[in-house]
Specification:
The protein has 381 residues and is of the alpha/beta class. The protein is built from eleven helices and 13 strands. The protein is 39% helix and 15% strand. The two termini are 21 Å apart.
Amino acid sequence: MIYFDNAATTFPKPAVVVEEIKKCMQSYGGNAGRGAHSLSLKAAEKVFECRSLIAELFGAEDADRVFFTPNTTYGINAVLKGLLHDGDHVIISDMEHNAVLRPVWKMANEGRIEYDVFKTYTGDARQSPVRICASIAKLLRPNTRLVFCTHASNICSEILPIKEIGAFCHKYGVLFAVDAAQSAGHEEINIADMNIDALCVPGHKGLYGPQGSGAVVLGRGITLDTLIEGGNGIDSMMPEMPSQAPERYEAGTVAAPSIAGLCEGIKAVKRYGIGNIADNERRMCGRICDILCNTKGVSVYLPQYTGSIVLFNVNGLPSEKTAALLDGKGICVRGGYHCAALAHKTLGTDDGGAVRASLGMFNRLPEADLFCKAVREIVSS
C-alpha cells in the first residue's frame, strides 16, 4: 500500500507512539489531574511533558499557554468563540477550511458578528505579502477584532506569509489567529516571531500523534472565554471556571493516552527534523508535479507550489472515481472537496473538486514514481 492521504491523518505512526499509548493504558492510566495517587500523578507528568514540548516547539512563553483539544477544529472553535464578542468583525482568507468558515458563518448568520474574506491571490504570479496585506487593509473596520487564516492550504502546497500578516495585524491593533492543521510539523512556526496570538494545531497530522489529539497555543496576554465548562481538578468549590490557564480551557478528563502518544510523536518529528521532513516532501511533490504535468489527460493545479500536497484531476473522470481507481491499485488518496469550499472556489475546482495526494515523513521517491505510473495507467485505460 502507498499512503498518500497524510493531510487527513498521517499514517503509519512511529512505533514509539503506539508503544507509549499502550504503556499509558496498561501502566499509568490514571486520570491526570484528578487525584494524588501514583497512577494519576504519572499520567499528569506525561501530560505536562507533552504540554512543555508543544510550548517549546512553537515558541510559547511557557507550558501554561498550551491547552489540549480533540482536534484542530475544536481548537479553532474555542479561539473564535472565545475571542469574538457580539458586534465584532472578523476577516478570514479565501483559502480557509470549513473548520474556520462554518463557525464564522454561523455566528454571522445569528447576527452576533460580521465577517469578510480577504484575497490571497493564490496562483497569481503577482502574489506577494504586501499585496495580501493590502487586501486585508481594504476590509479593516473600527470593529475589526480578529484576522484568522490558514498557514498552509489543505488542498495545495501554498503557504501563506503569516509572519508578515501577523505583523500587519498587530500594527493596526488586530488579533491574529492561525490554523496550522497542514503546517505544524511540516514548517517551522514560532508564535512570538510570527506575531500569532492563537495557534491551532492537530496532534494526528504532522506531529504524528493519534487521532483525538490536538492543541491550542496562546500568545502572551491572551485569555479566551470558555467554550465548555466543567470540572478540571482545581477550585472545585467555585461555580465559575477558574482564570488559571491551561485548566480554564480543559473541562473534563483529558485524553491522557492520546496525549502520551502525541508526546512521542513530537519527539520523533524533532529527531527527524522539521526541515528534513519538508525537504523530503518537496522533493516528492516536485517529482510528481513534473511527471503529471507532462502526462496528457491530467490537469495539475498550481504545480508552481511545492510542499506536501499535489492537487490534480484525470480529465473526464470525477475526482472520487479517480481516487477509487487508485485505491484499487493500493494507493490511498482523497477525491472531492476536502471540506474546503472557499479554497476550491478560489482555485476554480469547485465543480466536482479534485484528487489530493498528500505526502508525509515516511513516504519516499519510489512511491512517487509508482503513484505517477498508476495515474498514467488510469489515463490510458
